[in-house]
Amino acid sequence: MELVPITREGQGRLKKELERLIKEERPSVIKAIEEARAHGDLSENAEFHAAKERQGFIEGRIAELETQLATSQVEEIAGPYDRCVFGATVTMENVDTGDTKTYTLVGPFESAPERGLISVATPIGRALLGREAGDEIRVNTPNGPQDYNIISVK
Q: How far is CA 37 from CA 42, 52, 59, 81, in A?
């Protein structure tokens, strides 16, 4: 089985979320289920059904996080970078609009574009890998191809 790369910070975030779910959320939802059961008829007990649904979500997320942690491997990040590699922070400019964006290249389990973290497995991530400042890349997006100039790699 091929392991998925992850940064040490990303692994820490996953472990922290897993710990919170196991130590706080799981006991809380179990208590809510017990309290709802005490109210009697379960067939028309909205609190019971909501708590059971929440429990299913929590247990599913716990299983997902455990799988992600078991199938990932921390990639040590050593700079300075002169090329776009896993862990590098890249600033690029859209050729058509002039908009600039800065992204850090991470693994798929920690990707969060809204926080500036993009996976090396995405079209943009794949297009950036191996490139350096001054290069131009073309990325196929749902809105058609987009051209970007790489301004800096840190």
A: 7, 11, 20, 58
DSSP state of 2: P
Is the CA virtual torsion 109, 111, 112, 116 positive or negative? positive
Maximum distance among all alpha carbons in the chain?
69
Q: Give the model confidence (pLDDT) of 24-74 as tens digits.
A: 999 999 999 998 888 877 777 888 899 999 999 999 999 999 999 999 999
In this prediction the pTM is 0.81
Residue 54, SS3 per DSSP: helix
Domain with CATH 1.10.287.180 in the chain: 4-74
Residue type (1 letter), 2:
E
Q: What dotted CATH number matches 89-153?
A: 3.10.50.30
Cα 116–chain centre separation: 11
Is 122:137 a contact under the CB 8 Å cutoff?
A: no
Rg of the chain in Å (alpha carbons): 21
**Beta-carbon-side half-sphere exposure of residue 24 (alpha carbons within 13 Å):** 6
The third-level CATH classification (topology) of the domain covering 4-74 is Helix Hairpins (1.10.287)
